[in-house]
UniProtKB/TrEMBL annotation:
InterPro entries: Cro/C1-type_HTH, Lambda_DNA-bd_dom_sf. Pfam families: HTH_3 (PF01381). Residues 18-72 form the HTH cro/C1-type domain. This is Helix-turn-helix transcriptional regulator. GO terms for molecular function: DNA binding.
Length: 97
C-alpha cells in the first residue's frame, strides 16, 4: 500500500502507542495476537505502523487494551467545539462532492 506520508507517520505513532499500552499491561505480542484472533506478525505490523492492517484488527486490539472508549471519543464530532456549535443544526444526510 502506498499511503501518503502523513498517513504513514500517523500509523507509526499509533502503532508505537499501542505497543506501549501492551507493555504497560504486561501482555506479550503473542498473547495480544491470540486474544485479537490474529497472528503475531499482524500485531507486529500494527505496532510498526503498517497502515494496511484492517480496521477490525485495530479496533479489536484497542478493545483488548481497554482504550476503545478514548478512540470513540477522539472521533466524535460532538466532542469538539465546532461539533458542539453545530449540534443544534440539522446536518445533511449525505455530503455531495
Amino acid at each position: 500500500m502506498n499511503a501518503p506520508a502523513r498517513t504513514r507517520m500517523a500509523a507509526k505513532s499509533i502503532g508505537e502507542s499501542l505497543q506501549s499500552w501492551r507493555k504497560l499491561y504486561g501482555i506479550s505480542s503473542q498473547e495480544l495476537a491470540d486474544r485479537a484472533g490474529v497472528s503475531r506478525a499482524t500485531v507486529s505490523r500494527l505496532e510498526n505502523g503498517d497502515p494496511s492492517v484492517s480496521l477490525a484488527t485495530f479496533l479489536n486490539v484497542c478493545g483488548i487494551l481497554q482504550i476503545e472508549g478514548r478512540l470513540i471519543d477522539a472521533v466524535d464530532p460532538y466532542e469538539t467545539e465546532y461539533g458542539r456549535i453545530r449540534a443544534d443544526e440539522e446536518l445533511p444526510k449525505r455530503v455531495r462532492r
